[in-house]
Amino acid sequence: MNNNNLNQNKSQDDVLHLGDSFAGAYLPEVSINAIESLIENDKFSTAMFEFNGISLVVTKSSTVSSINKDYLQQSKENYELYLNSDEGKKQTIEREKIQLEYQNKGKILLNSFDDSLTSEKSLIKWLGEFSLVTDTTTINYDLKDLAQKMKEHNFDYKI
Fold it and tell me: pLDDT digit string (tens) for 17-26?
């Protein structure tokens, strides 16, 4: 359950507003500070703070784990909302297009691997281009086969 809903029926006077966390903050630390602040201020039964744009509600029975769980749930909900938005759909299509381009480039590179074994310079260039592909998308290839071919061309590569 989203703890944010707990605050809707509470008086604003009963809520300790802690504000936004700072850039680079660590959620467990911020959560501990929020729980401690709430315990120190008996007049409040609930505290609120923002972490990465997500409002989190803390009660005296909250734990770091429960706050983290709420944060992850809200993050997931926000991500799903984004993916279903026009911008998110457009971004998904663009990402899939880029992935497909890199998968095709990877296939071309794999087919030209033997040609790259003519010199150390051409092999290094091939490896750099292939590294960019594998950093961008998933592509299936047999590393042992590539290593064997390198070895056959006197490039010693150990797996």
Answer: 998 888 889 9
pLDDT of residue 23: 83
Partners of residue 59 on adjacent β-strands? 46
Q: Roughly how many angstroms between the first and final C-alpha of the chain, as a whole number? A: 48
Type of residue found at 126: W
Are residues 65 and 80 in contact, defined by beta-carbon separation less than 8 angstroms? Answer: no
CB atoms within 10 A of CB 94: 10
Q: Say what the pTM is.
A: 0.61
Q: Is the pLDDT of residue 6 over 50?
A: no
Q: Decide the pairing of beta strands 46-51 and 15-20.
A: parallel
Contact 28, 68 (CB under 8 A): yes
Residue 9 has what pLDDT? 41
Distance, CA of 157 to CA of 150 (rounded, Å): 7
Tell me, what's the pLDDT at 12? 59
What b/e sequence results for 113-133 when a residue is b if at least 16 CB atoms lie within 10 Å of its CB, and e otherwise? Answer: beebbeeeeebeebeeebeeb
Q: Find tokens 């290593």 and name the residue.
A: 147
Q: How far apart are CA 33 and CA 48, in angstroms?
A: 11
Identity at 97, one-letter amino acid code: K
